[in-house]
Amino acid sequence: MTLERLILTNFKNYTEADIALCGNVNCFVGNNGAGKTNLLDAVYYLSFCKSYFNPVDVQNIRMGDDFFAIHGHYGDDVASCVLRRGKGKEMRWNKKPYKTLAEHIGKLPLVMVSPADQQIITGGSDMRRRFVDGILAQTDGGYLQHLLQYNKALEMRNRLLKQMWDDRLWDESMVAVYDTQLTIHGESLYDARRRFIADFRPLFEEYYRWIAGDGEQAVIDYSADTRPLGEQLADARQADKYAQYTTVGPHKDDLILQLGNEMSVKRFGSQGQQKSFALALKLAQFQYMVNLKGQKPILLLDDIFDKLDMLRVKQLIALVGSDRFGQVLLTDTQPGRVQAIFDELPTLEHKLFNVHAGTVTQNS
């Protein structure tokens, strides 16, 4: 779907904003702190019911106000996210509220690319699992339900382990009840992740070669215990007893990210290589979703040009502005840079917006 109009009220540093977007490349330029990224985050909210940058929803309400509202017009359909202090968050589709936020996930496919993505490379394994889970949650409704049920059972099992340790009472039969639930949902997570990596790997390799050149090889793989999950949990019960939490399962899996001859990109990759790796992951995510769903996600590019040379910036804009991609929203601090690129690509449909202290105006 194409986002034709974005309306904000009391969101972050915006009192009011009403922005008409084009169907191809929309560029927001302004100084750091002006509010460019906040616009992209508002669009992210409309797809995922949460912020990409700040998990505490109430902190995204404009200071001094009691609520925020985000409305997006996608053709004849309208998505709305409203949060009031003390009353929780409500997601609506054509004014009709959802019973659960999970019902909305996947309706508006979206891929966000930002400098924070480097944490996929440099952060802990939870960041890489979150990357995979985020893609599969958008493309496979069954996966999201298995993930929610697995996490619920995991939380309850961990709580039980802690309680039994505090009470000095060990009841293996009670632990086994949660093992059954974890196995049912966890095996589905394992299977989906393995299939995902098999399909995702060639897409990632293609984009990494485009970004870094043919002379450098990158490798991605899925690292997980291959034994049945029920067997893993049974073998780890004594370790879990003393650790007071569940030490095995898909919540402990990781992605193997390597350069060349089995060198960890996290440990040995330069900043440029890590940035290229992260960008290739996100562009491959876009292509994977297109291949699977037959629908082009909205692509958000937040401040990703600073460490790319001018030629690569031009190539990237030409790429995302091509028929291979759909609607793009991007931010930059240098209006002259993007305007010069648009001048060299006269057939590229685009809109250029100036952002200053929470106000947005279209550049004529």
Topology, pairings included?
Layout: E1 5-11, E2 14-20, E3 25-29, H1 36-48, E4 67-74, E5 77-84, E6 88-93, E7 96-97, E8 110-113, H2 118-122, H3 125-139, H4 141-167, H5 172-212, E9 218-223, H6 229-235, H7 237-243, E10 254-259, E11 263-264, H8 265-268, H9 271-293, E12 298-302, H10 310-320, E13 328-332, H11 335-344, E14 350-356, E15 359-362
Helix pairs in contact: 3-4, 4-5, 5-6, 5-9
Q: What is the number of beta strands?
A: 15
**Strand content bin:** 15-25%
SS content category: alpha/beta
* Average pLDDT level: 92
Shape: globular
Query: How large is the count of helical segments?
Result: 11
Radius of gyration: 22 Å
**Can you list the strand order of the major beta sheet?**
2-1-4-5-6-7
- Euclidean distance between termini CA atoms: 26 Å
Low-confidence stretches: none
Q: In this structure, how is the largest beta sheet organized? A: 6 strands, antiparallel
Percent range for helical residues? 40-55%
Order of helices and strands: EEEHEEEEEHHHHEHHEEHHEHEHEE
Description of the molecule:
With 364 residues, this protein is an alpha/beta fold. It is 45% helix and 23% strand. It contains eleven helices and 15 strands. A six-stranded antiparallel β-sheet has the order 2-1-4-5-6-7, with helices on one face. A six-stranded mixed β-sheet has the order 8-12-13-3-14-15, with helices on both faces. Helix 5 crosses helix 6 (229-235). The radius of gyration is 22 Å and the shape is globular. The chain starts with a strand and ends with a strand. The model has no long low-confidence stretch (mean pLDDT 92).
